[in-house]
Amino acid sequence: MTRDLFDDECSPAPWVQEIGEDAVILRHFAIAQVDALLEDIHNLQDLSPFRRQQTPGGFWMSVGMSNCGSFGWISDRKGYRYVAIDPVTGSPWPAMPDLFYQVAVEAAEQAGFKDFVPDACLINRYEIGTKMSLHQDKDEQDMSQPIVSVSLGLPAVFMFGGQSRQDPVQRFPLFQGDVVVWGGRSRLNFHGVRPLKADLNAPNGQGDVRYNLTFRKAF
Ligand SMILES: O=C(O)CCC(=O)C(=O)O
Ligand SMILES: [Fe+2]
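Above: query sequence and fe (ii) ion SMILES. Below: predicted holo structure tokens.
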């Protein structure tokens, strides 16, 4: 992708915040693409709707989830896994929009991961009060490929720990347009999202949801 796509004169300047070994937040990285990414999400949800999923242990996750790309991440009583067919629709997951792919690959490159080839994009939909508990992303086959995570909508607090659940956890605010990339020595670090709070400064009717796009190479 050409850098021009990101050179929007009205956008705040991007900057890189290191949060761990081989882990960064690319601040404002996708700020100029926010509206187009949200429009893509709205179109995708007509094809594969958001749904809440059950953990293998029988708990219901609070976050609504859908996927696009060749594979989608699902969870049910049988376990966590990637599948090519959406169990809700019985059809393949919708194709990954070009813009999603471009933003993910460009962000990975910016973070030092040159050959990222995402084949899965999990779309998380957080309403006020929903959260994602500390976990590792470890259902992928190739751990040399990073995770690229794009924030849209309401701000959230991202938790980033170490490779053990007991390691200290840092907290970072994430705003829309921010992209977190972690891989290499941090690939299996525990991470999560604190319960989402309402943004009291947001205009009426706007900003009651956070979306997150998590790109991975599943296979
Ligand atoms: O919503 C986020 O920022 C993180 C999502 C995440 O960790 C995941 O989907 O595995
Ligand atoms: Fe995760």
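The radius of gyration is 16 Å.
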